[in-house]
Design a protein that fits this description.
alpha/beta, seven-stranded mixed sheet, globular
Length: 201
């Protein structure tokens, strides 16, 4: 089967004073370039979701030649980027992540694809039982119309279409820990303290 990955990079980084998280430096590369390099060895196609043409131009030098998709809807959050990524992808299954998660473990991505095969989605479960949608793998065919319907009906939170899928595999964190013992995959950059702690600039 054809596998794809979508990196959501269209957020405005409001909690960081509108800093472009994707362009922050992490171990000598931008976070975006680092994430693309990790995913490139696993999937057949990497897509980058950006909010507009201005961001597309700003990111071009860091996108490693990957296709960038632009939001058709503005100010509705990550579902806008997910919609465009799902419309553009060639893959049967797609791994969705955010540009502020720079420590994705490729073994986790491969594991999530394995968990999703034959199902509509595989989504990590936090200890409280809630889902982590931005490290999930989704089968494009059933998911795409549900994303469109969620947006048109005003349900713009990221899990709205996932809740409508018939066959979702919840992947326990303890199972993911077997391939990523410290769960570094789920570290994200939200605050200035995160930047200092993770040595990102």
């Amino acid at each position: 089967m054809t596998l794809s990955a979508l990196i959501l990079a269209g957020g405005r980084g409001r909690r960081l004073g509108n800093v472009e998280k994707a362009l922050m430096n992490c171990e000598g590369k931008s976070v975006l370039e680092r994430t693309i390099n990790i995913l490139d060895d696993i999937v057949d196609e990497v897509l980058v979701s950006v909010r507009d043409e201005g961001q597309e131009k700003e990111f071009k030098a860091h996108a490693c030649g990957k296709k960038m998709v632009l939001d058709s809807y503005s100010d509705i959050g990550p579902l806008a980027g997910i919609l465009e990524g799902f419309k553009a992808t060639k893959g049967e299954y797609i791994f969705v992540t955010a540009c502020d998660m720079p420590f994705i473990d490729p073994k986790v991505v491969e594991f999530m694809f394995q968990c999703a095969e034959g199902h509509d989605a595989a989504v990590p479960l936090r200890p409280d039982g809630s889902m982590e949608p931005l490290c999930g793998v989704y089968r494009v065919e059933p998911m795409l119309p549900l994303i469109e319907r969620s947006i048109s009906s005003g349900k713009r939170f990221i899990l709205a279409p996932v809740f409508e899928l018939d066959d979702v595999v919840g992947v326990e964190m303890e199972n993911i820990r077997e391939v990523d013992p410290q769960l570094k995959t789920f570290i994200n950059i939200n605050t200035f303290d995160d930047i200092d702690e993770l040595n990102i600039c």
